[in-house]
Every structure is written in C-alpha cells, then in structure tokens.
Design goal:
This is 1-acyl-sn-glycerol-3-phosphate acyltransferase. The protein has 266 residues and is of the alpha/beta class. It has one domain. Strands 1, 2, 3, 4, 5, 6, 7, 8 and 9 form a nine-stranded mixed β-sheet that branches. A hairpin with a 2-residue loop joins strand 6 and strand 7. Helix 2 packs across helix 3 and helix 5 crosses helix 6. The model has no long low-confidence stretch (mean pLDDT 86).
Length: 266
C-alpha cells in the first residue's frame, strides 16, 4: 500500500511540474528569456525528487571549450542526474525520441539523436555534434554505447569519439577537450548497495521503460554520485582508440572509488 501511494505521489509531482515547466521551456527556447538550461535544471530536479534520488557531486564540469564529456551509462536517469546541475547537452540513441516524457524532455534540451546501426548517417550526426561543440555546447557522450549493470564499466567505443575528430578536421576547432565523468548509484535508503543490488538502478539493454520506472518510484531514496575527472586535450595528432581507452580507465577508476567508499546519504 505504501509503495502504491509513493508511486501515485511521484507521478503527480512529475505531471504537475511538467504542466508548468514545459510551456516555460518552450517559451525560453523561442525568446531566449532565460539561459537554455535554466528551466531544464529545475525539471530534472523535480523528476529526481519524484524518484527519491539524491545527487552527490565531486569535481566540476570543465570550463574549457569545445568540450566533449565521456561518461559511463547505467540508466535513463543518468540524463536527469547530470542535467540537474550541469549546463550540458546530450547525445542519445534515436529511439529515445519517441519515449513518453523522456523523449519530450530530450527534444526540449536539443539532444542529438544518433542511429548507431546506420553507418550512412554517422557522418552527418558526427558533424552536427562537432558543430554544437564548436558553438560552445558541452556535449555528453555515453561512450559505452549501451547501459551497464552499475557494477562495471564496459569498453568505450572509439567510433563514438568521431565528433571530436570531425570538429578538428572541419576546422571548427584546433583542440577539443574530452572530460571523463563517472556515474555511480551507491546507496538505497542510506544503505550501501552491494554488487547484487546495484542493478536495481540499472536500465539495461532493451528492458521496457515503464516497469523500470515503476520500480524506481516504488523504491525511492537512491543515492547517486557523479565524479568529474581532468579534461584531456584532443588535437589533430591524437589517436581516437588511445583516447577512448584513457577515458575508459579514468571513468572506471572513479566509479570503483565511489562504489568502494560511497558518500554518506543526506
């Protein structure tokens, strides 16, 4: 009964906040009345509040531009987590555009949707991301190409770093900065999550969205940590595969440190 009440209240909060914030974001995008991420940050925070998630941040988003953020990926909630405090835009898989609420939210923050299976379109997609970075947008790349279970970081795909190479080859920038960022879901109701229970937060592969959303709303009280590493300069002579491996190592080390010694819940 308590879980049903929690789900009802969470849904009510999401719907009420969306009814107010969606028109404001649309107005902001048309008029520039507020910074583009101002309303989005509030919206992300309201969704996290509805889900009962608390965010702990170590480090800061780099001020260097153009900037590509290379992060691990555990769940669709990663977007809300990062978007709740950082001025970033996202690179997401194409099917997310059709998701209820999440798809709308993504479009309202000018997410770049990519179709990883269609190689013919990869050049155009990389070019769009490169142009966005050149204009000053910090773009978040979930470099594993899929979601993991919250216990491990999967290999980073070097092909996904093509936007950095294209920004340089097209003359949009001489150097692109790539910053490693680790996301770790660490506690449930204040108790550290062990390997067995971390997948509660994970949304893996082709799992249906609604059952996972229901689990998160009924459980509540998840703690998530975001750790920012030092950005690395990527230039004309840089190697994509080596850079991908470096980012992977950095993210894995930060994630394991967060899991081994999670910050206190608050």
């Amino acid at each position: 009964m308590i879980k049903k009440i929690r789900i009802f209240l969470a849904l009510a909060l999401v719907v009420a906040s969306s009814l107010v914030l969606v028109p404001l974001q649309m107005l902001s995008m048309k008029t520039g009345l507020w910074p583009e991420t101002f309303i989005l940050k509030i919206w992300h925070r309201m969704i996290l509040r509805a889900l009962g998630m608390r965010v702990h941040v170590k480090g800061t988003l780099s001020t260097q531009r153009p900037l590509l953020v290379a992060a691990n990926h555990i769940s669709w909630t990663d977007i809300m987590v990062l978007g709740s405090f950082a001025d970033v835009k996202f690179i997401a898989r194409a099917d997310m555009a059709g998701w209820p609420l999440i798809g709308m939210l993504s479009k309202l923050q000018r997410t770049v949707f990519i179709e990883r299976e269609r190689k013919r379109s990869s050049g155009d997609q990389a070019s769009e991301i490169a142009n966005r970075m050149a204009k000053g947008d910090a773009m978040v790349l979930f470099a594993e190409g899929s979601t993991a279970d919250g216990n491990v970081v999967m290999p980073f795909k070097s092909t996904l770093f093509g936007a950095a190479s294209m920004a340089i080859s097209e003359g949009a920038a001489q150097t692109v900065f790539i910053q490693p960022v680790a996301i770790a879901y660490t506690r449930l109701h204040g108790v550290p999550l062990g390997r067995r229970h971390r997948p509660i937060a994970a949304w893996i592969g082709d799992e249906d969205l609604m059952p996972h959303l229901k689990v998160l709303m009924s459980e509540g009280a998840l703690d998530v940590e975001v750790h920012f590493g030092e950005p690395v300069a990527f230039s004309k002579g840089s190697n994509r595969k080596e850079t991908a491996k470096l980012m992977e190592r950095e993210v894995r080390a930060m994630m394991q440190a967060a899991l081994a010694d999670p910050r206190p819940s608050r």
